[in-house]
Amino acid sequence: MPAAPASLLTIFGATGDLAQRMLLPSLYSLQAEGLLPPDLRILGTARSELDREAFAGQVANAIAERVPAAERNDAAVRGLLDRLDYCPASVNDDASMATLAERVNALRNGDVLYHLSTAPRFYVPACHALGAHGAAGAGTRVMLEKPIGKNLTSAEAINDGVAEVFDEDRVYRVDHYLGKEGVQNLIALRFGNALFEPQWNARHIEQVQITVAETVGVEGRGDYYDDSGALRDMLQNHLLQLLCLVAMEPPAQFEPTAMRNEKIKVLRSLRAIGRDEVATEFVAGQYGAGAIDGVAVPSYAAELGRASSTETFVAMRAHVDNWRWSGVPFYLRTGKRMPSRCTEIYLQFRKVPHSIFGGAAAGDMRPNGLLIRLQPEERIELQLMSKTPGLDRSGLRLSQVALDLDFHTEFAASRKRLAYERLYLDAIEGNGTLFVRRDETEAAWQWVDAILDGWRAGATMPRLYPAGTWGPSAAVSLIERNGQSWRE
């Protein structure tokens, strides 16, 4: 039975950085477009001792700072502020959690959505406190931010603890990449066009590359990041979710169970990269001093203030061992202090089996490619061979050209949305399609844990690379020794 729209959204960590940058501006945009349920109330909670008016002031400031002036209007701001309430609470203080539960039950007029925008160590105690004080029964659901733990054991402990209070169908695990327009365009491209599905397999595709590159360093998150690293922070969730959407079989419907069932099949088909494979299939790096856009930037160790063995870059060759993808390498890489910020998926098709073009044209031949760029701007580019204009007695000359769909240009009248607008709208309405199920999280951790174990068993340090480059040279060797090269 479908969940009813929430009558109350309760945000834990409502004064935190994520709330100020993403959550509150997203709620404002939903308010401005009339997409929030008319009777929805929003209850903020955090350790800060604020009253309702002070919290409303913070929300107004967040909107003023984060929402472009052209998208702000006073009526929408007032409409959002009128929905607000605030109740200070700490998950370590039972009395304050009892007070919060009383406020929740007083404000609700139907279903309740809790969003735990906090450190993962608070997920279980927060859920247990809500349950103990009668605020987590039927008609309630909870959003959990990544990371869900830092390995399989801790992820299972969090999932077990949350499951003691919330049934699995009431748990919405967030990977904000799934809320991005570009990721949803990937789903539309694959399953909304008859052109691609017959070619979307090992018979026609030679390799797949998934890149998530950041130009920033740790940006004040040094202690958190040093305990996590690129493998846990980015690959275990974002990159593996993108891999699943590229590699999965067509689901019967665009609905939670069908989508998640196909994604978990991909994760369970990933070939293990363990102690015997890490040396040849995996590269870890850490940025040193360098320059980004001509501006000098310090090394990771300098930003952190101490030496560290934490990786800020990983690259690997993965295989999905099933009929559709047998023999096709999936190259994954992510890193900080890269030359440019981009998230993209590149599928390189196999070469034509025989070239009819002799002479110089034979050397012009390039395999077709499909580029799906998710950020900074969404675009889809299909790379094809075309005749080079001109006359040549030796025959046709060929050039690679691109059929380019730029979503910024094509949908210029549409506003670029934050990922949390989609995620909040779906969670408020009880639609879990773009959220991650427990078995997905744990299967991803199982695969990543084997890589971490293999890397540590080798007792190797991450390889240094200058900031502003595409990672250590070993990452280039990883792909080139298999006869391919990174798309840059």
How far apart lie the N and C ends? 47 Å
CATH structural fold name of the largest domain:
Dihydrodipicolinate Reductase, domain 2
- Give the class from helix and strand content and strand pairing: alpha/beta
Our Rg estimate from Cα atoms comes to: 24 Å
- Helical run tally: 17
CATH superfamily of the largest domain: Dihydrodipicolinate Reductase, domain 2
* Average pLDDT figure: 92
What's the number of domains?
2
The main sheet comes to: 9 strands, mixed
* Strand content bin: 15-25%
Strand tally: 17
Commentary on this structure:
It is a single chain. By secondary structure, the protein is of the alpha/beta class. It folds into two domains: 6-145, Rossmann fold; 178-480, Dihydrodipicolinate Reductase, domain 2, CATH 3.30.360. It is built from 17 helices and 17 strands. It has helices spanning 17-32, 52-66, 74-82, 94-107, 123-132, 152-163, 181-191, 222-226, 229-247, 256-269, 278-281, 300-304, 360-364, 407-410, 419-429, 438-457, 473-480; strands spanning 6-12, 41-45, 84-86, 111-116, 140-144, 171-173, 205-213, 282-288, 290-292, 295-297, 313-319, 329-335, 342-349, 369-375, 379-387, 398-406, 463-466. The chain has a nine-stranded mixed sheet with strand order 16-15-14-13-7-12-11-8-17, with helices on both faces. It has a six-stranded parallel sheet with strand order 3-2-1-4-5-6, with helices on both faces. It has a two-stranded antiparallel sheet with strand order 9-10. Helix 1 links the parallel strand 1 and strand 2. Helix 1 packs across helix 3, helix 5 runs parallel beside helix 6 and helix 9 (229-247) crosses helix 10. The longest helix has 20 residues, at 438-457. The radius of gyration is 24 Å and the shape is globular. The two termini are 47 Å apart. The mean pLDDT is 92.
